[in-house]
């Protein structure tokens, strides 16, 4: 029998920022018992995934081995770590472990998808541990930008792994546990085989700043404003939301939370005892009657999301509240790459209303939740692992993080999604490449990213769509002329005539010339009509559209 | 008769960065003689304009008054200032004036669209002037990021206007004229009524840096590399391209230009005497035989454009050249908002090849071509106009620029696209709002942005497309069952059956129940079938698709 081995396999998150899903295994090769760390989502965009609702890691590999999974561990409640748990759980069916605040969110997500929330179990903090097959797992508190974030201390017969999850080193994070160096030193003490480590900010050169540094800046800013102040941040950054609310109160303003996610997060924080001292808020109804200079709104939509409160306000009234000349809008957030245009759209709409916009151009009103390059080096040093495996990053982040590890003489492993690494031997070894990919939640259906569904949508968006219909009579002769319907195409082209008319005429001519061999063969007919339609479009409007041909035979 | 007046009317560029098109008029109200400054393009994106090739300002207002246009003046050869000249000229038919290098590009654009390039006339530099109806216009050299950029000195009976075009204040721009303070002082001396001024960088707090500062940094960087060096920048930034080439030569490398725009720009520069000392280059064929550490490629595609040389290299071989582990890729450019994802895609592809990527995160290898906030203040001071009218910016830029002008006691006018401002009286007065908008070049056809064509494409991309066809016999009874074709939709939904089958069954049932009133009425039938198809899709796959219904009647 082959010797037991310890493996690491990222299925998502090691090739993108988002969609986190990591697997650890221990046991005989190809019969390892498994645990899963995080089941997150990524978000679609118009360019690559129009119409898609959410993106998950393709967990086919895991699902085929569901009987070997001893537990699913969620490090924290950000969507890219917990967002897929409700959607994917039924294919894995293992207990889900998380700390109280995270579990609160995981349970809601299970319920929303019709799964029993009791499958989510609340875990204490390290040195308390959870036994999951051959793994003993402890939740080691770490600072990030959401309460109760945790790293995982994963103990196996082949050694200890520390999986950081998302983190920064912040000794004054506002809400939640400060980074506890003593506890971390303790966790690292027995020797750590591998540090599997967040890479998001590896390109940020300067030491990260504490959440506590933004408070005074925000207080000062809010106090200076003479109109209404509206501020947005990530709803899950509970510490920041509180800081904003406190700044409102300190300047004599009533505070109103706008946007479902914002209220939900604060409620969850209070319910799970993460937060006990949030300022009193007023409802939108009450807010309407408060003078603008005594009012502060804290709203969702820092990324320009079209349905969030900030976008609604930028389009006019929202719940009876609206912005006006002399008001101030603060982005206490950074714009995630890809969201720039949506954010800029909102800024310009506010500008047209005469609202002053303050963003984070200088880092005064926002700090990142991830460890910057020097902080990553500090973490390497603190944990002093044999191996550093960068995760949570695009390929360029992982690669740079490996370089950083190597620079201080550590073994770094570049393991993008699908790379199965054995950690048992004296040095890490890539033992297999597993097929990975993306699953799209498309309305109510999960489809593969490469199924062709989304590709067809993109093609229609880029090229327009022509529908050609025709009828063949009982003798397989054309009955009347072909019909053309255009969707997403100009009505008139170079000739000045209707594109429909020109195309129908060209298709009619083609049918007149078509012999029986063509008329009797559906594929040939389809192909011929399609070719003519595309050529006519090219001549008339300079592009080849997508074409759907429907031939009805009365025979 | 009403008194003559001087008007300013932006049709594009005062509401976006790009698509510049400004109008000045002088004469009796509503009978002013007109000149046009710049005819530029904006670029489409998948989110708002999928499939579109180029975006122009809607020039309907101008085209209706074409007989009153005395000249079209192009400030410089960037696409957002000259790109539409070939496409729109036939609707305006006035002489086009530009300096030699700009005229070279404008003429090519005229030729490409089948217009006589001789309509583009070459102008000298101020104090030489062009007479255009009641306007006397001089091209005042100014530094920017393309050769021969010019501001315009526009002399009228109602006073002098200086229209900056795009500019920075750079006394050592590398290629082209340094900013000549004495000349500018001279131009401003008689007193300036209005400064119409670039606003792009109004949010950049620090004084701008000279093009000459990047040379030494790039030299140092290139000299340090041991593999092949590939650098990208905007092809039109001829000074930068030369700086990159010189850095290659200085480190003993042969230089090869890749990408049509890159070669075209350098050729145009040499042809028009803008550039006389560009290093000798090698062809891609020659480059293949040169050892990597002796080779430098300068390539197009700094914005991640999918067809440009950098994207091609990121996907593998391009013209027989490819990148490899140990090579370096330098972005000597900034990423324009909206292009982040494309650029990041390329970076990660290079990362997978083991290529080191250096971008402009610290401003070491790139400087902007636009005047920053303090430089704008310097310009205001130098020209000392009665009025400052910010242009070339989104609304937020224009508004901020007005604030900047006001802060030093000047009259600033916020005039977004369509705002017609009279400059004749003692103070500026908004006299009219003109309808403005965007025209899409879609293949070979110009369509209005609001024509619905692109809206239909976006809907198909977001929702998928169902085609329903059915035949009614001579008695208007359904002949056989309706047919369904799905494009961009999942094949299977909640029931586990084929969505096509379920939908065809539901549509068939609807027809069985339909009475003559429905069957005889095309609109009713269409509406009914559409409603059923959408409801079935909602039940099965959780979304309502676009539906095209084609009913054929044999009667």
TrEMBL record, chains A, B:
Signal peptide: none annotated. InterPro entries: Metallo-B-lactamas (IPR001279), RibonucZ/Hydroxyglut_hydro (IPR036866), RMMBL (IPR011108), RNase_J_2 (IPR042173), RNase_J_b_CASP (IPR055132), RNase_J_C (IPR041636), RNase_J_CS (IPR001587). The keyword Transport does not apply. This is Ribonuclease J. It comes from the Bacteria. PANTHER family: RIBONUCLEASE J (PTHR43694:SF1). Keywords: Exonuclease, Hydrolase, Metal-binding, Nuclease, RNA-binding, Zinc. GO terms for molecular function: exonuclease activity; metal ion binding; RNA binding. The lineage of its organism: Bacteria, Pseudomonadati, Pseudomonadota, Alphaproteobacteria, Rhodobacterales. Residues 18-218 form the Metallo-beta-lactamase domain. It comes from Palleronia aestuarii. The keyword Acetylation does not apply.
């Amino acid at each position: 029998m082959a010797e037991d081995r310890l493996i690491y396999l990222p299925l998502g998150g090691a090739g993108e920022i988002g969609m986190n899903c990591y697997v650890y295994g221990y046991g005989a090769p190809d019969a390892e018992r498994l645990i899963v760390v995080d089941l997150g989502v990524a978000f679609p965009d118009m360019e690559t995934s129009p119409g898609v609702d959410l993106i998950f890691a393709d967990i086919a590999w895991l699902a085929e081995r569901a009987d070997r999974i001893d537990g699913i561990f969620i490090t924290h409640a950000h969507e890219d770590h917990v967002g897929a748990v409700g959607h994917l759980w039924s294919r894995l069916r293992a207990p889900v472990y998380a700390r109280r605040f995270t579990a609160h969110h995981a349970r809601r997500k299970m319920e929303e998808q019709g799964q029993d929330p009791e499958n989510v179990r609340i875990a204490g903090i390290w040195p308390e541990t959870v036994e999951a097959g051959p793994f003993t797992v402890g939740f080691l508190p770490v600072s990030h930008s959401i309460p109760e974030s945790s790293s995982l201390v994963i103990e196996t017969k082949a050694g200890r792994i520390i999986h950081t999850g998302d983190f920064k080193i912040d000794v004054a994070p506002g809400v939640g546990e400060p980074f506890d160096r003593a506890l971390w030193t303790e966790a690292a003490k027995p020797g750590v085989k591998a540090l599997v480590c967040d890479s998001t900010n590896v390109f940020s050169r300067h030491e990260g700043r504490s959440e506590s540094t933004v408070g005074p800046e925000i207080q000062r800013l809010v106090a200076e404003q003479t109109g209404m102040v509206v501020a947005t941040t990530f709803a899950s950054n509970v510490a920041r939301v509180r800081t904003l609310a406190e700044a409102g109160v300190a300047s004599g303003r009533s505070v109103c939370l706008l946007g479902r996610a914002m209220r939900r997060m604060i409620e969850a924080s209070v319910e799970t005892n993460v937060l006990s001292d949030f300022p009193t808020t007023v409802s939108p109804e009450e807010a309407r009657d408060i003078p603008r200079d005594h009012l502060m709104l804290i709203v969702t939509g820092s990324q320009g999301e079209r349905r969030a409160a900030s976008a609604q306000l930028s389009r006019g009234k929202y719940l009876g509240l609206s912005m006006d000349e002399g008001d101030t809008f603060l982005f206490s957030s950074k714009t995630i790459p890809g969201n720039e245009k949506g954010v800029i759209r909102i800024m310009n709409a506010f500008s047209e209303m005469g609202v002053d916009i303050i963003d984070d151009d200088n880092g005064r009103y926002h700090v990142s939740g991830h460890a910057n390059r020097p902080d990553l080096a500090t973490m390497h040093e603190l944990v002093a692992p044999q191996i550093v495996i960068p995760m949570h990053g695009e390929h360029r982040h992982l690669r740079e993080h490996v370089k950083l590890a190597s620079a201080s003489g550590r073994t770094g492993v570049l393991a993008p999604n699908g790379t199965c690494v054995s950690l048992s031997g004296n040095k890490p070894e890539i033992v297999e490449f597993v097929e990975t990919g993306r699953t799209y939640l498309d309305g109510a259906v999960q489809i593969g990213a490469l199924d062709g569904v989304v590709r067809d949508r993109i093609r229609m968006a880029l090229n327009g769509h022509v529908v050609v219909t025709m009828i063949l009579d009982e003798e397989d002769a054309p009955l009347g002329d072909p019909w053309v319907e255009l969707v997403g195409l100009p009505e008139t082209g170079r000739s000045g005539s209707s594109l429909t008319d020109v195309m129908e005429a060209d298709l009619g001519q083609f049918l007149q010339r078509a012999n029986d061999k063509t008329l009797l063969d559906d594929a040939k007919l389809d192909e011929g009509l399609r070719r003519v339609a595309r050529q006519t479009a090219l001549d008339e409007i300079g592009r080849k559209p997508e074409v759907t041909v429907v031939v009805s035979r009365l025979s």
